[in-house]
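Q: What residues go here?
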């Protein structure tokens, strides 16, 4: 057997012991201890943890890096939406491409090699952002697989003309359809319309859902009902769902069972949820971060993602998913080792499952996508924000991020 590259002494995630990884033709060709040398270039991983790469399921590239143009004084959801509505009027394809590529490059350098990005389409911005990101998807395919999820951030049914723009984006190749039902007066009707579009174009669904702290009205019941009715289980995700963080245990457990049974996955977005939630409290501010690890324990597939970067929805961000999962674990008081290791799954395998990437994972025959982390175990990765040292996409090196070095006096 011949290889293009051999990685030795790799602690491959979810596999006992250390192994060597032989790569050929952009795919994993052999994974076992003691692969014979073939003259191919070799790299010694020194027992470091090797993961297939981080997977971002929910990020807004089109409205990233807007801080210089928007006010962010109150830090509320209403302010954020209003400010971005204003900024969007000046969007051009070149402008969106330039900001989105900046953000995407940061994500790649932080070990992300799969991404679903949510793109706003409506009668005012039209397909400007969508077309810019379509080009970005092509231009960066050497480093990352990008899915475009089009959605109506300013409402669908209450925004005349929006339906037609959504349909046009789907005809032009949008990979996923999304919604923000809380933006229409009749949220259930928006949910119904999005399911119709998904069926017509045979695409997955990804909603912004149940943002807020009042669990009296939950749209997730309707989403689960529709997933059952249409057979779309396993193809539906909901993001934020901060209302679950405000539910007592019995109600939370019932919602978890409903989601697990319907095959509806959940993405928690800690940076935005922490920044926007509880703005009316002047003390004991509720944190609004749904405990995804508790949903996982009840069979719900979950991911943790970045959402917004450097805009009025979240004026922070470095596109590092290992930092995000550490933030999540800290805020939601994850303690048990099993929960800590499970946290890493919520930025890797669980996220890949959410976006339905069947060929994700370090296994013979899969595309040779991997990232080497500067740690030995999954728990260490989460606790220490272990940095990615380098990554491969289909066997080709995409980034290097050497570990810091001390210069001790002699
Ligand atoms: Zn979002």
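A:
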């Amino acid at each position: 057997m011949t290889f293009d590259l051999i990685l030795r002494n790799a602690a491959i995630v979810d596999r006992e012991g250390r192994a060597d990884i032989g790569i050929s033709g952009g795919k994993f060709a052999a994974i076992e201890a003691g692969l014979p040398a073939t003259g191919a270039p070799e790299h010694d991983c020194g027992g470091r943890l090797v993961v297939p790469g981080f997977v971002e399921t929910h990020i807004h590239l089109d409205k990233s890096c807007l801080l210089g143009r928007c006010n962010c004084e109150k830090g509320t959801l209403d302010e954020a939406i209003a400010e971005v509505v204003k900024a969007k009027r000046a969007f051009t394809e070149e402008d969106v491409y330039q900001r989105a590529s900046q953000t995407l490059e940061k994500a790649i350098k932080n070990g992300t090699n799969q991404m679903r990005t949510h793109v706003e389409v409506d009668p005012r911005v039209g397909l400007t952002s969508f077309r810019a990101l379509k080009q970005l998807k092509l231009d960066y395919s050497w480093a990352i697989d990008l899915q475009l999820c089009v959605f109506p951030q300013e409402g669908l049914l209450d925004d005349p003309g929006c339906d037609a723009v959504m349909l046009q984006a789907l005809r032009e190749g949008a990979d996923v359809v999304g919604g923000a039902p809380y933006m229409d007066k009749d949220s259930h009707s928006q949910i119904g319309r999005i399911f119709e579009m998904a069926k017509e174009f045979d695409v997955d669904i990804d909603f912004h859902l149940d943002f807020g702290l009042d669990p009296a009205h939950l749209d997730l019941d309707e989403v689960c009902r529709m997933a059952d009715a249409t057979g779309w289980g396993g193809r539906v995700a909901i993001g934020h769902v901060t209302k679950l963080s405000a539910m007592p245990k019995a109600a939370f457990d019932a919602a978890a069972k409903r989601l697990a049974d319907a095959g509806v996955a959940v993405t928690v977005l800690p940076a935005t949820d922490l920044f926007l939630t509880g703005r009316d409290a002047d003390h004991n501010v509720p944190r609004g971060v749904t405990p995804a690890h508790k949903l996982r324990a009840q069979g719900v597939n979950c991911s943790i993602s970045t959402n917004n970067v450097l805009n009025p929805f979240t004026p922070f961000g470095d596109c590092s998913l290992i930092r995000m999962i550490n933030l999540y674990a800290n805020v939601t008081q994850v303690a048990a080792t099993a929960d800590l290791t499970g946290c890493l799954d919520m930025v890797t395998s669980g996220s890949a499952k959410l976006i339905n990437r069947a060929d994700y994972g370090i296994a013979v025959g899969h595309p040779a996508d991997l990232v080497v982390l500067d740690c030995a175990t999954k728990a260490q990765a989460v606790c220490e924000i272990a940095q990615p040292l380098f990554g491969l996409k289909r066997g080709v090196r995409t980034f290097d991020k050497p570990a810091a070095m001390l210069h001790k006096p002699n």
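A: Context that may help when evaluating the design: Residues 58, 60, 118, 208, 239, 307 surround zinc ion (CB under 6 Å). The two ends are 47 Å apart (CA to CA).
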